[in-house]
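Thread: "does anyone have the structure for this chain?"

Original post by V.I.:
We have the sequence but no experimental structure in hand. Need at least a predicted one for the grant figures.
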Amino acid sequence: MLKKKSIGAALACALALALGAWSGSTLATPINVSGVVWDPNSPLDLTIQALNFRESSIASVGDVLTGYGVIGSFNGTSPSTFCPGCDLNFTFQYTVSNITGNQVEFSPGSISFFVDNTSSFNVLNPTTAGIGTPWLTLSGHDGSVLGFGGTAQLFSSVVGTVTDPLTGSNGIGFLDASGGPAASYFQTHTQADGLGGFADFTLNSEFLFSLVRGCSSTPSADPNNVCHYPITGTATLIGRSVSVPEPGAAGLLGLGLAFLGLFTWRRNKETEGRAP
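Reply from O.Q.:
Generated one for you, tokens below.
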């Protein structure tokens, strides 16, 4: 017959396995997803920076802003550390929803990241972005920014004109991790959206009109031509990452619970056998 002491021992064993599974996974660093490596315990977690991205120009409501680039820093580490032997490139698009003076609002919008193991990214060749293994999709999150009248997913303050922004032009946006193998590591809802809710990321950017030498002031109509993207900039994504239990850890958790269930079942069967 199983005594209360046996049940207690089973429970202790189950909890020990479960806690071991979870603690082992949450403390394990670094995280590696499709070749992109980072430490969720870094003091800078989570800071992702893009340098010298290129984007198209916009002029009116309904225009679609498109662009591309490559990540240059992840939690303060260089590409050779966070993506050894690969590029973490990205493409993005945002639709203009409102223009008021020098303020532009965009909705909807999204950013897609790819791991390119050929390390072929070239900022002068737009076709080298958006290739490789899909890694993360960020979808625009509705928010509000002080000084802007509406709700949008990206807000831009332009110095100069909308079509020819000058130094000092900047953008603020909100995004959620919505797809790709890395998404579950970033769904932490830590960034206030100004509407009482929380997004996974805030986006901060600076940009200005800067033609590539050899391009005319009229952008090319060909999105595969660098002259289609007369604006350059930098951007920073801020959020938080969290360790997700690996299959082995989840298996240990299940084993612990199954062990407890077996003991409980046997105790119930013995109780039934003694019933008059």
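V.I.: this helps a lot. The chain has two domains: 4-24+248-274, 32-242.
O.Q.: and The first strand starts at residue 31 and ends at 33.
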